[in-house]
Design brief:
By secondary structure, this protein is mainly beta.
Length: 79
């Protein structure tokens, strides 16, 4: 989770869709150093959203928690 309270996700494997348990989050694109600006996205009433930088597709899945993703390695971890 980022210091601003939003969970971050990434798409290192280039999967077609990432299922997540939140509707407001940040996308990092891929892991550094090839990441893009970590931008805030909000699905609102929709269940899907595309990142305007990397075109990663995110789908809300209410079965997942705020710190979960499918695939699991799509959760961005800050070391």
């Amino acid at each position: 989770m980022a210091g601003d309270g939003y969970t971050k996700f990434k798409n290192d494997r280039g999967v077609q869709e990432i299922r997540i348990g939140v509707k407001a989050f940040k996308c990092a694109g891929v892991s550094a150093p090839h990441d893009h600006p970590h931008i805030y996205l909000n699905m609102g009433a929709a269940d899907t959203i595309l990142c305007p930088y990397c075109a990663a597709s995110f789908r809300y899945d209410p079965r997942l928690g705020a710190l979960e993703a499918d695939p699991p390695d799509s959760l961005f971890k800050i070391n």
